[in-house]
Design a protein that fits this description.
Chain lengths: 826, 332
């Protein structure tokens, strides 16, 4: 489940549980129905199968629309066993009722509390620091400064802060209040240095250096460029050229669970409890920075309340708590508050981009050209290829020339945020496609259907392992009723005295959800036939553990409830990389699948030995029962999985030898080659704009995603719902703002950094998916967590144009920007 | 997080006296604004670090709402916003006030937040609310909104400091001709119309109203509505209907006589450092039968005085639209 959806529905469910007011209950019930939350809850409780979804897809298949690829793969299983069955996430009930324990709920005996001193300037040198008063303050146990931390690209505490809010010193004390008071007693003097916030300014030769040690502010060398064909020639062939300029904003991830760490040393073993998307990444980063072996750092999480890309690897708070714990000999806790997070955690970077598209009057695209700039923060180096992912692949374009410039800037740290790059890139690309369709007076859906390229990845020059984009567009258009609701390009004057409605649509390509190594896991079949999956990977709220259980149960042939997952801990299993890039189902799931198949084969070898068969090819294991494929009714050749597990053998020099004990399956799956694997999807939205107030209400959302194959439809629906909510915020409200003259963030709080509440969800949400059965996905599956975010903002952008005749090219599309655009047009 | 002294009081006199003798004392009611400021650590030369909280919720009868057809409405300053929002007397006789109270904050906050607190809350300016900016309003030497991010700042009457008044109920009270009963530092009491209750930055940049240390807003009195009165309250915000301060809001009260406007009051918040009475618009509609054209002309005239900054020009059009809609709604 996406945490934002959880969080949102939680309010209502909580109201349901604690309220005795019948009116409130009735209103909540109504709200739940209206927002579609109620249906999800019924599905979660197992009272309802999304029958409409199943029926819809059956209808599609009947029409021969789906699936598009039907290779004969032995991993494919008959539907109806475990994979594909809507399954309630094992953690859902605990989370909804508040019983779940998150990493931030970790309180150890004797624990100390942390607070840090932050730089008030975007760039400065610390000229002096005196901590004696803070150290002498009653209850303070340790104070550390930049002098006490190991060197790193971004040191945990800095002598030359390169963004406002960068930590300088840290205090550990008996209480959080004491730590805060003590921080105020640290006497620090700064020498201000020149700073630069805008990447376009930062890349000019005369710009201030973001750090004094930098020779230039270019964050990558060389910068990103991509060309194919001849763009100049393509534009010469074009009959119409359209141009756009877009700007997006700094966004924080705003996970429900704040970033946190509790560090404790037991002799030379450092343990860090922390909400993380990648326990091994955190542990290995900490080990490298502290100069200790990876085996000496254990990182573990309880439930993690959302990450969205910002809880990966080592953060300064891990190093700071580890050093304070070492110095004091006590566990040290730091729960970042929202201000800490807005100032000091990662952010999605804004995109400043211009692009143009050449088309012929018949709708053929001849050329694309574009340039983008991003501020990487003082230490990051954001890749720019993802910004152009959708533009360079989704549509057949023979001539392309695009480039992206990544600059160091004295701004907040940047990190990945759900579909990093593609989100802003799709906002740009689809804006361009809409303008082209408008210039040609074509239906935007027809324009896209005419131009999408679904066979070959034009950048990698490889066939797609699956591509359900056309089916997604067709299915979405059908669900939304696009043909009857698209009224053509509105050219007349708009009645500005009352709210106006408009529709908009989008298509996208996303590289998140494609496979990436390490795809590794250990699967153990225990003496009684029950199964334990060991992986270092995390479940950050997306229901990953449920999906892995389903994959293992299906692959081995046992009941789902006999499979348990041991994860979210460097000591639970091998490093399977983080839960980012929508890797949970696709990549970690692939490791689990092959480890499970390996364990199954080892199990069946014991059976073959007992039944005196030369190999396992005639043995089947299904729903916990072992039998001969060729003679399933023969009771002489039947046993339970528990009996099979007890019959274990190991094969040494081709000779099976009986060997009692747990069966251990393992896998380390290499990257698949020969295919390009991407995710695709479409969105159709209706909105209402009040031209008097600039307020946008989303009335209807339809999203259809190519997911390869749905492993757990319940979790899938939840992820897409979360993406819709998140995407509406991205479209309409979320932006971190600077005071340009001082370089200080003006809105590091949830009052001024707006997030919509659940009432902003459209009254009508329809979610569906197409299942082209991906050639290299586990059971044909791809990822969904990140792609789910892509449709809302560009669809809303298009719908605003349809409603009131203006393109609002700055995201978020706030009332102020909508009113400004309307005023400019008038 | 810090330690503060906390005293429960049982009378207005006791509370005023306790506040008058300690410049670091502040009255606490619902606490929804004050506690946030304390936790945030806001302070400056002109904004003390409050260390002494005087609880006035404990004063008996301070949250009463009473209505008499002859005298009008009396509201204890400690009445919660949700009690106003749900009061039958208020809904029936002063629907604009009920709507204003219901438009503030979230249900949770309205359950603890009081009318007095909503009227006297400090501004939401993100420079004022940010510990990193030592602005005029905290006793500093600059208004950062002038050179910085000012999308949510004043377009009217800004000088020195460009905050906007954040209250939803204040414009409704001014439009309804309400008065404030003030318990004074010297133990006395006075009644002041809300027309002269709020003060701009030139009067005292450190305050938004006439209350001095030790003065407390005790009661709000609203006269009985005249025959032929129509009223409206509208609020534009960034976040739907939920939990947001206004981009701008407006309360309009129109007294109709013989099919024409006999008298009117049109008051906006979110556009100026104090609730802004659009007297130009009031004059423009006086004696007129309201049509969309009349309302539009009044709105256009009223905003001629606007002086937007770099990022807030949109508020001019927004304020005009609100005036038009509000006049039409109050007239209908």
């Amino acid at each position: 489940m996406a945490e934002k959806t959880n969080a949102a529905s939680f309010n209502y469910v909580q109201g349901d549980l604690v309220s005795t007011d019948p009116l409130l209950l009735e209103r909540d019930a109504h709200s739940r129905e209206r927002t579609g939350v109620a249906q999800i809850e019924r599905v979660m409780r197992g009272e309802e199968t999304p029958a409409d979804v199943v029926a819809d897809r059956t209808a599609l298949r009947r029409r021969g629309v789906n699936p598009t690829v039907q290779p004969d793969l032995s991993l494919r299983v008959a539907p109806g066993s475990v994979v594909g069955k809507p399954t309630i996430d094992g953690r859902a009930r605990d989370k909804i009722t508040g019983r779940a324990q998150y990493s931030v709920d970790t309180y150890l005996p004797g624990m100390l509390w942390t607070k840090v001193l932050r730089s008030p300037m975007p760039h400065a040198k610390v000229s002096s620091i005196d901590t004696t008063k803070a150290e002498a303050y009653p209850g303070v146990k340790a104070v550390i400064t930049y002098k006490d931390v190991p060197k790193a690209t971004r040191a945990a505490l800095s002598a030359e802060p390169a963004f406002a809010g960068e930590p300088i010193a840290a205090v550990a004390a008996e209480t959080a209040a004491i730590a805060e008071e003590a921080v105020a007693l640290i006497d620090v003097k700064y020498e201000p240095l020149p700073f630069v916030l805008d990447p376009r300014e930062a890349l000019k030769a005369a710009a201030a250096k973001v750090r004094t040690t930098l020779a230039a502010n270019a964050a990558r060398s060389p910068q990103f460029t991509y060309t194919r064909g001849d763009a100049a020639k393509g534009f010469a062939e074009a009959e119409v050229t359209v141009e756009v300029q877009v700007e997006t904003s700094f966004e924080q991830h705003v996970a429900m669970e704040p970033h946190n760490a509790v560090a404790v040393w037991d002799r030379d073993l450092l343990t860090i409890y922390t909400g993380t998307q990648w326990a091994h990444g955190t542990a290995n980063g900490v080990a490298a920075e502290l100069g200790i072996p990876q085996s000496s750092v254990r990182v573990l999480a309880k439930d993690t309340g959302g990450g969205w890309g910002d809880k990966t690897g080592r953060h300064p708070y891990h190093i700071i708590t580890a050093l304070l714990a070492k110095k004091t000999g006590r566990p040290v806790r730091w729960e970042l508050n929202r201000k800490d997070i807005f100032l000091d955690a990662g952010h999605n970077y804004p995109l400043f981009a211009t692009a143009k598209l050449g088309v012929k009057k018949d709708g053929t695209i001849t050329a694309l050209e574009g340039t983008s700039y991003v501020p990487s923060g003082a230490y990051g180096a954001r890749a720019n290829s993802d910004d152009w992912e959708s533009a360079t692949r989704t549509y057949k374009i023979p001539n392309v020339k695009v480039g992206g410039f990544s600059a160091y800037t004295n701004t907040v740290d940047t990190s990945a945020l759900r579909s990093v790059g593609e989100a802003s890139g799709t906002f740009l690309t689809e804006n361009l496609m809409n303008r082209a369709a408008e210039a040609l007076n074509m239906d935007p859906l027809e324009f896209r259907l005419k131009n999408i390229e679904t066979a070959v990845d034009q950048v990698a020059n490889l066939p797609y392992s699956s591509n359900g984009l056309r089916e997604s567009l067709e299915r979405g258009a059908e669900l939304f009723g696009w043909k009857s609701r698209w009224k053509g390009w509105q050219k007349g004057p708009v009645d500005l005295t009352k709210p106006q409605r408009g529709v908009g649509m989008v298509a996208f390509t996303c590289n998140k959800g494609a496979n990436s190594p390490p795809m590794t896991a250990i699967v153990q079949i225990q003496g009684d036939g029950s199964v334990v999956v060991n992986t270092g990977a995390a479940d950050i709220g997306g229901g990953q553990r449920t999906v892995w259980s389903m994959i293992a149960a299906e692959a081995i042939g046992v009941a789902l409830d006999t499979v348990k997952i041991n994860a979210m801990d460097t000591q639970a299993g091998p490093d399977a990389l983080g839960i980012f890039g929508s890797r949970g189902t696709k990549s970690v799931g692939t490791g689990v699948l092959y480890a499970a198949l390996n364990a199954r084969e080892k199990l069946l070898q014991g059976v073959a030995f007992k039944w005196k068969l030369s190999n396992t090819s005639d043995i089947e294991l299904k729903e916990g029962k072992v039998f001969r494929k060729s003679d399933p009714a023969n009771t002489a050749f039947q046993m339970t999985v528990a009996e099979a597990a007890a019959a274990g053998v190991v094969i040494i020099d081709d000779v099976p030898r009986p060997a009692a004990g747990t069966i251990v399956g393992e896998a380390r799956v290499p990257a698949f080659s020969g295919y390009s694997q991407k995710t695709f999807g479409a969105g159709f939205y209706e909105i209402e704009v009040d031209p008097a107030t600039g307020f946008v209400r989303v009335l209807e959302a339809v999203q259809v995603h190519d997911v390869g194959r749905a492993i757990n439809p319940t979790g899938l629906v939840n992820q897409i719902h979360g993406g819709i909510m998140h995407g509406i915020n991205k479209a309409l409200t979320e932006e971190l703002l600077y005071d340009p003259p001082t370089g200080i963030v003006v809105n590091p709080n949830l009052d001024d950094y707006k997030l919509h509440m659940i009432d902003a969800l459209p009254a009508k949400i329809q979610v569906d998916w197409v299942e082209p059965y991906d050639l290299i996905g586990p059971f044909g599956a791809k990822g969904i967590g990140e792609p789910a975010l892509l449709p809302p903002s560009p669809s809303i952008h298009a719908a605003i144009r349809d409603a009131v005749g203006v393109y609002v090219n700055q995201q978020p599309m706030t009332p102020a920007r909508i009113l400004n655009a309307l005023a400019k047009k008038a | 997080m810090r330690t503060v002294k906390y005293t429960k009081t049982t009378s207005w006199k006791q509370a005023s006296a306790a506040l008058a003798k300690d410049p670091k004392a502040l009255a606490i009611a619902g606490g929804s604004d004050l506690l946030g400021m304390i936790k945030e650590g806001l302070e400056g030369k002109g904004l003390p670090r409050y260390e002494n909280l005087i609880d006035i919720r404990t004063i008996a009868g301070s949250d009463a709402i009473t209505f008499k057809a002859s005298d009008g409405l009396t509201i204890g300053a400690l009445a919660t916003l949700s009690s106003l929002e749900n009061s039958d007397d208020v809904k029936k006789n002063y629907p604009a006030l009920a709507r204003a109270a219901g438009a503030a904050a979230s249900p949770n906050i309205r359950n603890s937040g009081t009318l007095g607190g909503n009227i006297n809350q400090r501004p939401r300016c993100w420079y004022y609310r940010n510990t990193e900016f030592d602005c005029y309003k905290k006793g500093g030497e600059f208004c950062f909104a002038v050179t910085g991010s000012n999308a949510y700042h004043a377009i009217l009457n800004g000088e020195l400091c460009y905050i906007v008044h954040p209250s939803d109920t204040a414009p409704a009270l001014i439009a309804l001709g309400a008065s404030a009963v003030i318990s004074m530092a010297d133990g006395g009491e006075k009644t002041v119309p809300f027309d002269s209750y709020f003060t701009g930055p030139r009067v005292d940049v450190l305050r938004e109203n006439i209350l001095k240390q030790g003065d407390l807003l005790k009661e709000v009195r609203i006269p009985a509505p005249k025959a032929g009165t129509g009223m409206s309250f509208l609020k534009a915000q960034r976040r739907g209907e939920t939990y947001d301060f206004a981009l701008a809001n407006i309360a309009t009260v129109i007294v109709k006589k013989d099919g024409k406007v006999d008298d009117s009051r049109i008051v906006l918040s979110g556009v100026a450092p104090t609730p802004y009475r659009a007297t130009v618009a009031e004059e423009a509609i006086k004696g007129q039968a309201i049509t969309a054209q009349v309302a539009q002309a009044a709105a256009d005239k009223a905003l001629l005085q606007a002086r937007p900054m770099t990022d807030n020009a949109y508020k001019v059009g927004l304020a005009k639209s609100l005036i038009v809609r509000s006049i039409l709604e109050a007239w209908a």
